[in-house]
Amino acid sequence: LCIVCGASFAEAGHLRRHTLIHTGEKSHQCKTCGKSFAHAQDLRRHDAVHTGRKMHQCVVYHKSFAQRSTMVRHMMIHTGKKRFQCEVCQKSFTHASHWRRHVLVHTGERMYECKICRKPFARASSLRTHMRVHTGEKLYRCTTCGDKFTQSSNLRRHHKKHKPSFPCAACGAATSSLEDLEIHVKGHLSE
């Protein structure tokens, strides 16, 4: 029985391991970077950061992972197992982080606010993207014409202008979307 929090353990070794949570003792130190860990197995897991050793492999894609838990989470892609479900709309997710992000759709909670214009955002990443409006930073460059964009989605939309893929059967002119082709074809019908 833990004298600090009252947790009970079947084995004395598990109790000793648990008490390190309360003492903060970290006696296992990485020789490469000096980071300390409470448990030897955590140090061994951390060591993969420096060695690049990836001992756990996906049997489908043969992709390798340093940590077993990361590989198990990846395998959910193949099994279709989705452990996290939204109580509002019943949509399911394989990752807790995706579920937590989704829940904000229903709550309307927006924890991140732009310090310049006070616009609120549900995600930190959305705020970072928004900040480019104020800084003028354009990270995404079209390799065809050199135009620059603040968001990758705007660059993808722009790329379609360089790749007309919907040819008109009547005149051979090509449009970048099916909607534009329909408008174009209606022009032939009115002639």
What number is the mean pLDDT? Answer: 84
Residue runs with pLDDT of under 50 for 5 or more positions: none
The largest sheet has its strands arranged as: 1-2
Structural class, judged by helices and strands? Answer: alpha+beta
Alpha carbon gap, first and last residue: 88 Å
Give the beta-strand count: 12
Count of discrete alpha- or pi-helical segments spanning 4 or more residues:
7
What percentage of the residues does DSSP assign to strands (E)?
A: 5-15%
The helix-strand sequence is: HEEHEEHEEHEEHEEHEEH
| Global morphology | elongated
Percent range for helical residues? Answer: 40-55%
How can the largest sheet be summarized? 2 strands, antiparallel
Whole-angstrom Rg: 27 Å
Account of the protein in words:
This protein is an alpha+beta fold. It has helices spanning 12-23, 40-51, 68-79, 96-107, 124-135, 152-162, 178-189; strands at 28-29, 36-37, 56-57, 64-65, 84-85, 92-93, 112-113, 120-121, 140-141, 148-149, 166-167, 174-175. A two-stranded antiparallel sheet has the order 1-2. Strand 11 (166-167) and strand 12 (174-175) form a beta hairpin. The longest helix is centred in the first third of the chain and has 12 residues, at 12-23. The mean pLDDT is 84.
